[in-house]
Design a protein that fits this description.
79% of the residues lie in helices and 0% in strands. The chain has 107 residues and is mostly helical. The chain has one domain. Helix 1 packs antiparallel against helix 2 and helix 1 packs across helix 3. It is elongated, with a radius of gyration of 21 Å. The model has no long low-confidence stretch (mean pLDDT 85). This is PepSY-associated TM helix. It comes from Dactylococcopsis salina (strain PCC 8305) (Myxobactron salinum). Keywords: Membrane, Transmembrane, Transmembrane helix.
């Protein structure tokens, strides 16, 4: 299996695992900020959103692991996604000259 297929497979598998924590993190982070800025909630009123956002409900032992895995998952997905995108762009000849594109289409 070539590296492109491996990246796609790793990306697909991790994305399936990471979708729920990332959605929860994004929704609670945006909700916290908007509830304070737009709706005038105090820090104490909106604190429950930060508890969810930061994984505090998991306890002191797991909170750090949750944040670490969430961050590493995002970095991995960004890296594999960007690599696949760059590979597709280079493969399609988007940045090659018209002369190179003609030569590629002839072969």
């Amino acid at each position: 299996m070539n590296w492109r297929k491996q990246f796609r497979e790793w990306h697909r598998r991790l994305a399936g695992i990471m979708i729920l924590p990332l959605i929860v993190t994004a929704i609670t982070g945006v909700s916290y900020r908007l509830s304070k800025d737009w709706f005038g909630f105090t820090r104490d009123q909106a604190h429950f959103l930060m508890v969810i956002h930061e994984g505090e409900y998991l306890g002191d032992e797991l909170k750090g692991i949750y944040v670490l895995l969430n961050g590493l998952g995002v970095l991995f997905l960004l890296t594999t996604g960007a690599t696949m995108l760059f590979s597709n762009i280079m493969k399609s000849g988007l940045f090659s000259s018209p002369k190179q594109q003609k030569e590629q289409s002839k072969s």
